[in-house]
Design goal:
This protein is α/β, with parallel strands linked by helices. 38% of the residues lie in helices and 14% in strands. Bound molecules: pyridoxal-5'-phosphate.
Length: 554
């Protein structure tokens, strides 16, 4: 018997925005008052921050997530990598935008069934779908779950296929652990650790870091002149915030920090603090190099040679140097959106990183692709009034970029909240009519959605629209909002009913046979899926209420 009667909406965007309302309002007002509304500083700043966060060289903001996908495929065609009629393998179980990005460009979608326990593309079925026309695999980190597996990376390598990620639902998620020596470690922090500071501390630390940058010591100035502007082929930053520390110099690609010790580093208390910090950062996988000021000032060449030699021995954890893509035994954890050749991101308001309207982005390490996407999304122009491609106007507004830059700072924290909610659901839901997807390590799931499958064992395949709808109505009558993701799979949509690639999947009219269903697992998921409330603002009390309701459902 359930006593309280709460109202738990599926997702309250109003509450989500209010979480950081003051900062968002400040950002919006700043843009309004600036008089500059497109292609300005706000775009540049967000693109830089998001590229750093995802771990790619480039980020190109655009109008929405569907456009991001459309531009990736179109750019591959413009660059001569693909041509219309080529095939792209993608999961059958996804939001239709994944298909639309492909079909918009005259490419042929080849749908592959998901696994029933993960709901993500079944990597055991991909190889059979590869033909001489196959040019790419498009994976979708659906529901916030990492869909990338070592097998998919190996297939891309074996058949020379592009790997494109639809990262619309998984901002902040980490990729698979590819280095066998790192297996068995259970959290990304053990493998690598977070770049960003604890958000409550971040502003304070960043303020100090800015000050330090403005007032460098003599030694810091010398070091910066040696490292800046990719001088030694690596990108360094100075006065960079990691966790609750400010490191003097930092190379993200190698996880390498460099510290300069002035006189005060020899006092005992400072020494203890330094040692503690070194231990902490080293445990998280960072490598620290320390030099004294006089060492640097007397022998800058020697110091630089040491840095180069240490860096050259460290593995890079950029996507393009991951072990299963390039061989070797390095490799550390990287985020979804940097695992393949390019990724499309959506910042639709309800996504984990959501704007206050439509917004999207492409991330990639490929310079040519980046330049082409940037042009396509800006009328096909790289230079004002010169048009290389027949593009469209698909730009990211300055206001949206400013809002996204605020929300990006809190993304890890928001995702962590989602992971705590998911833990309650996983540990609390016990009902024989409900199946939960296989639980992944938190590093590999940012829980954009919390899908459950409502089964009716008496129905063939266990699926039951009737039962699922009854659960939906029961929860609704108890004040709980749920949504189906998605009620009709893309291959069964009217818009694709006449497509040749899809013809075998279309039910035939009455009297013309039964209509072969080639994607039964996808259909079973669409007939039994229901998504429970999850987000950065839902409370533990609300989650427990929902769990009680579900456990009492018959
Ligand atoms: C939301 C979404 C998109 C499209 O993003 P929009 O910004 O809404 O255009 C693409 N793929 C998936 C999987 C999505 O969930």
């Amino acid at each position: 018997m359930i006593l309280n009667n709460m109202q738990v909406p599926f997702l309250s965007l109003k509450d989500v925005t209010a979480l950081h309302g003051a900062e968002i309002n400040e950002a919006v007002t700043r843009v309004v008052n600036s008089g500059w509304y497109l292609q300005g500083e706000e775009n540049a700043r967000f693109e830089r921050h998001y590229a750093d966060y995802i771990g790619t060289k480039h980020c190109i903001g655009c109008a929405n997530g569907l456009d991001a996908l459309i531009w990736i495929w179109r750019a591959y065609i413009e660059l001569g990598v693909m041509q219309p009629g080529d095939e792209v393998i993608l999961p059958a179980n996804t939001y239709i935008a994944t298909h639309l990005g492909i079909t918009e460009n005259g490419l042929i979608p080849v749908c592959v069934e998901p696994k029933l326990d993960t709901l993500e593309i079944d990597d055991d079925r991909i190889e059979a779908a590869i033909t001489p026309r196959t040019k790419a695999i498009c994976i979708v980190h659906l529901y916030g779950r990492c869909a990338c597996t070592p097998k998919i990376l190996d297939l891309c390598k074996k058949y020379n296929l592009k790997l494109v990620e639809d990262n619309a639902q998984a901002h902040g998620c980490w990729g698979p652990i590819l280095n066998p020596s790192l297996k068995g470690r259970t959290s990304f922090a053990e493998v690598f650790g977070a770049h960003t500071a604890d958000t409550t501390q971040y502003d304070l630390l960043e303020g100090n870091a800015v000050n330090n940058r403005k007032n460098p010591t003599e030694a810091e100035e010398v070091m910066w002149s040696l490292l800046k502007a990719n001088n030694i082929g690596l990108h360094f930053r100075r006065q960079h915030v990691i966790l609750n520390y400010i490191v003097d110099f930092f190379c993200a690609e190698k996880g390498l920090t460099i510290e300069l010790d002035g006189g005060y580093h020899f006092d005992l208390q400072q020494k203890e603090y330094d040692e503690e910090r070194t231990k902490h950062l080293t445990n998280l996988g960072y490598t620290e190099l320390r030099f004294t000021n006089s060492e640097l000032l007397c022998n800058p060449e020697g110091v630089l040679a040491k840095i180069k030699s240490v860096a050259s021995k460290l593995p890079s954890f950029r996507a393009n140097s991951l072990p299963s893509l390039q061989g070797g035994d390095g490799g550390r954890l990287v985020r979804t959106g940097s695992l393949g050749d390019a990724a499309g991101h959506s910042f639709y308001p309800g996504k984990n990183l959501g704007a206050l309207g439509d917004a999207g982005a492409v991330t990639t390490n490929d310079d040519d692709l980046a330049a082409c996407v940037r042009a396509l999304a800006n009328y096909g122009s790289q230079k004002k009034y010169v048009f290389q491609y027949t593009g469209r106007n698909s730009r990211l507004d300055e206001i949206q970029a400013a809002v996204l830059d605020v929300k990006l700072k809190y993304l890890d924290q928001d995702n962590q909240h989602r992971q705590e909610v998911a833990k309650l659901y996983y540990e609390g839901i016990h009902n024989p009519l409900i199946t939960l997807p296989k639980r992944l390590d938190d590093a590999n799931n940012v829980y954009h959605l919390f899908p459950i499958l409502v089964n009716n064992p008496s129905l063939q395949g266990g699926a039951g629209v009737g039962l699922r709808d009854r659960l939906h109505d029961y929860l609704a009558s108890n004040g709980v909002g749920t949504v189906i993701h998605y009620p009709i799979p893309p291959h069964m949509q009217e818009c694709y009913a006449k497509e040749l690639w899809n013809v075998y999947n279309t039910p035939l009219p009455a009297g013309e046979g039964s209509g072969e269903r080639l994607l039964p697992i996808t259909e079973q998921i669409h007939n039994s899926e229901l998504s429970l409330p999850i987000g950065p603002t839902i409370t533990a009390e609300e989650v427990v209420y929902i769990i009680d309701l579900i456990n009492n459902f018959q």
